[in-house]
Amino acid sequence: DSGVTQTPKHLITATGQRVTLRCSPRSGDLSVYWYQQSLDQGLQFLIQYYNGEERAKGNILERFSAQQFPDLHSELNLSSLELGDSALYFCASSTSNRNYGYTFGSGTRLTVV
Amino acid sequence: AQRVTQPEKLLSVFKGAPVELKCNYSYSGSPELFWYVQYSRQRLQLLLRHISRESIKGFTADLNKGETSFHLKKPFAQEEDSAMYYCALSGSGGYQKVTFGTGTKLQVIP
């Protein structure tokens, strides 16, 4: 599959814990974007990386961090988890730093209990 | 600040009826507008971009800068069109974040 791959698909963890979500972009795509989708807030932009460098930041909490590695995969780290962090986390990739449309992953559903 | 408004959470239409999914935006520069679709149990996928002036699966959308709108239209709804539709906006420069609307669920009644 040459599309965007996200792992794990589902994650259940307790409050106060830390988790890492992983994203492999579509082959050839240099840009990776992270979005949070909760029931009442729609898709919220978190952060963008382009070829390993952070390029744009949205409403990302200080408890959250991300990075893009030399092989272009990206990880989103969520720490000191709270119940309100329960959401779908989507990764998307695109061919360049310009927006010609994203290819989305299937998302990671995080449940904090 | 950039903002995308989709006023309808749910739109129900009968098969064969025309469809219009509304999208209004707020942006001070020159925007790029998109429609994304998410079918049941599938990932979000790009439906069309205003810059391409294309028609995908019978859907079209025209950017109206005067009314700051980018409504999605289809003359005859099909059952397979039932899905969540998201309008999205970004600036036209590099490294622009994309802002999504809250989505409209289209339900086509047989």
Q: What value does the average pLDDT of chain B take?
A: 91
Shape of chain B: globular
How many distinct helices of chain B?
Answer: 0
Percent strand of chain A = over 45%
Which runs of chain A of at least 5 residues are low in confidence (pLDDT < 50)?
A: none
Walk me through the topology:
The complex is a heterodimer of chains A (113) and B (110).
Chain A: E1 5-7, E2 10-13, E3 19-24, E4 31-38, E5 42-50, E6 53-57, E7 64-68, E8 74-78, E9 87-94, E10 103-104, E11 108-112
Parallel strand pairs in A: 2-11
Antiparallel strand pairs in A: 1-3, 3-8, 4-5, 4-9, 5-6, 7-8, 9-10, 9-11
Chain B: E1 3-5, E2 10-14, E3 19-21, E4 24-26, E5 31-38, E6 45-49, E7 60-61, E8 72-74, E9 83-91, E10 99-100, E11 104-109
Parallel strand pairs in B: 2-11
Antiparallel strand pairs in B: 1-4, 3-8, 5-6, 5-9, 7-8, 9-10, 9-11
Task: Give your account of this protein's structure.
The complex is a heterodimer of chains A (113) and B (110). By secondary structure, chain A is mainly β. Chain A has no helices and 11 strands. In chain A, the strands form 2 sheets. In chain A, strands 2, 4, 5, 6, 9, 10 and 11 form a 7-stranded mixed beta sheet that branches. The radius of gyration of chain A is 13 Å and the shape is globular. Helices cover 0% and strands 45% of the residues of chain B. The mean pLDDT of chain B is 91. With 110 residues, chain B is mostly beta strands. The termini of chain B are far apart. In chain B, the strands form 3 sheets. In chain B, strands 2, 5, 6, 9, 10 and 11 form a 6-stranded mixed beta sheet that branches. In chain B, strands 3-8-7 form a 3-stranded antiparallel beta sheet, with no helix packed on it. In chain B, strands 1-4 form a two-stranded antiparallel sheet. Chain B contains no helices and 11 strands. Chain B is globular. Classes of the chains: A mainly beta (113), B mainly beta (110). The interface between A and B is medium-sized, with 25 and 21 residues.
